[in-house]
Amino acid sequence: MFTRSSDKALSDQQARRRVASAMLVGTTLEWYDFFLYGTAAALIFNKQFFPSLSPAAGTLAAFSTFAVGFVARPLGGLVFGHFGDRVGRRNTLIVSLLMMGAASTLIGVVPNYGSIGVWAPVLLVLLRVVQGLGLGGEGAGATLMSMEHAPAGKRNLYAGFPQMGTPAGLVLANVVFLTTNAVMPSGAFDAWGWRIPFLLSAVLVVIGLVIRLHVEESPSFSRVVSHRAVERFPLREAMRVGVGRMALTLGVMIANSAVAYVFMVFTLSYGTEHLDYSRSFLIVCVSVAAVIWFATIPFWTRIADRSGRRSMFVGGSVALLIWCLVFLPMLGTGSAVITAAAFLGMGVIVPITHSVQGAIIADTFPAAVRYSGTSLILQVGAILGGGLAPIISSALVGESGGAAGVTAYLAVVCLLSLVCAVVLFARVPEPEPAAAAAAEGATV
């Protein structure tokens, strides 16, 4: 027979699981929208919105519109971070989901260049900005909402659930894109069928909203409110952790973002235009790798909770450096088997560091200013890493005709992140998992 305490424990456990599930579903839908644009930018938008340019220049222009979303993300992070620290995590996450879904749906109805001329890419860029603003508020908020509901000793595990939304959104976007392409007549998909996955966002955002409306506010923010510790200018207070620590934390996350966007987005255009792989083959390879990425995040976060994330993150950074040295050369062999193995390796290695980077960044800041500080680091890192990676990679290939420059670029970025991780972990002791929640309650 259950006692009142056991009933409450069961209720708390169910509430935590509901929050973790809601954050996973919400981030999956937001990343679906974001990655859908990336896939379309790699394969479709150069023909639809930049037909007067050469194939190489059109691809570069399409990737530039993809990067615009990253430029908008820090602004979204600052705005949503400010209100997330002042009025709560839950409501800001609902607004970010609405913005992302509305922008993606409207991209599905934007006329192409042949219909309205230069206004077509202008509208595309404007909607991409809205996408970036929405995702800028999502990344940090979902991680905090989940982590701040976590029981003692499971902060990395719970912070990892929103991280799972990245590969899940990628898989969903690629599956919908690939399926739509497969069932349509030849040429119809490139002409207008690519719009269907974007229009599907309207349905998906409704599902996400229904789920998110049934979660409770973060306990950490509730304690901030009850202690009357809400900051008037949370970003200013967040900066008090020090420029040095923030710069090191920023450096830690750049490599994972850069490598991930090269393997998820850049390889789609590079593989089809320079290596003669089929579009479907590359999308399947990326999707299978993302499934592995998704499935292994709980494994890595549990290890981080049990054994500490320091050695795991440094080891993962070394593995990422090694694999980025062989990844593009493996694609360049022309062997489908070796290429598939290269993508599978990415699916295994990328989640080691990605699974805990959200928790590492969030633990840099106290609860009262955590949304603002975490958003700033995440979104600036996303620009320097993922936002620039496809553009830089395309430019390097266009200059040399090969991928050696891209490999060197990734190696430098990975080495930089590895050095930052070693220095950061040497300077900042890792908190004991069981003590983190108690310490948080005392510092609001």
UniProtKB/TrEMBL annotation:
GO terms for cellular component: plasma membrane. This is Putative proline/betaine transporter. Its main location: membrane. The keyword Lipid biosynthesis does not apply. It is a multi-pass membrane protein. GO terms for molecular function: symporter activity. It comes from the Bacteria. Residues 19-429 form the Major facilitator superfamily (MFS) profile domain. Keywords: Cell membrane, Membrane, Symport, Transmembrane, Transmembrane helix, Transport. It is found in: Cell membrane. The keyword Iron does not apply. Belongs to the major facilitator superfamily. Metabolite:H+ Symporter (MHS) family (TC 2.A.1.6) family. The chain crosses the membrane at residues 21-45, 57-80, 92-110, 116-136, 157-180, 192-213, 246-268, 280-300, 312-331, 337-356, 376-397, 403-426. Signal peptide: none annotated. It holds the Pfam family MFS_1. May be a proton symporter involved in the uptake of osmolytes such as proline and glycine betaine.
